[in-house]
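Researcher: Structure for this, please.
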Amino acid sequence: MKTAVIGASGYAGGELLRLLALHPKFEVTLVSAHSNAGELVASVHPQLQSYTGRTFVSTDSIDFDGIELVFLALPHGESSTLVVKIPGHVKIVDLGADFRLESASQWEKYYHGTHAGTWVYGLPELATDQREAIKKENKVANPGCYATAISLGIAPAITMIDSTDVVVVAASGTTGAGRSAKINLIGSEVMGSMTSYKFGGVHQHTPEIEQALSAVAHKNVKISFTPMLAPMPRGILSTITAKLTQPLTTEQLHAIYSEHYLNDFFIDLLPLGQMPKTSAVLGSNKAQIQVAVDDHTNRVVISVAIDNLGKGAAGQAIQNANLICGLSENAGLAFDGVGS
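Model: Predicted structure, token format:
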């Protein structure tokens, strides 16, 4: 299938190009970037030598004639202005936030601007019917990176906890903030240090997570979410806790998660005693999960590791594209992480 990657000069766009270079069905025929238009792809992404000689085209000059699949890896708010120019028969996976939220008021509160609408939410493992819902659509809203890790972590236990008081602390690598130069993200500021940011429940993934989990639980879900910046380029490690509403042991909780994710290739529930590591999922579309019951406070504790550019962005986008194109969900993605 002839495929376009728009916004390919960023970190998520570069990871899309890397993964798509090995995909058995998707052929990248157009690579677009705004500020880098005219530059060589391999000069911006030196690791992508398979794209040697190819240049970024400007977004304004794109001819969608013959294009069958589009990945949008644009800043939030930009996808909605571009999709109106894409022919209706073309399949689209949007890695931005433009079409994730159902509530216009929540969009305006967290992202500002005008709400563009809602597409099917592209987290196949979220619920038993989510995968089939994605398959029926031509346009998919790819979830946010934190939203992916947190939703996957708590979804299997959502009916067994007090869903109005879910507490999350999650650390992300610096690529999660994008490629634009920022003083707080330069090496001198980040290396050897950790800090919280968007402190006090204001992170933009909060309404997305609550929306996704409320749909699964069929009741109101509220989270208190504190993100942290970790001194590493990529990866997310989330720790999620919530009060139990029924008696459970760690072994029983582990068995529930094992059954829930039994047929999900990309979710690795680790053996009891083994903890998720960001390095273990690096470069992959995998999520590692571990669970426990804190008997002292009667709370579930869940640890989740993903690659923010893999399962948190490009890998999941390709997984969704596979589904809407009628391909094997694992096509081009059936590999483990790099490790340390």
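Researcher: Any notable elements?
Model: The chain is about 25% helix and 20% strand. The longest strand covers residues 161-172.
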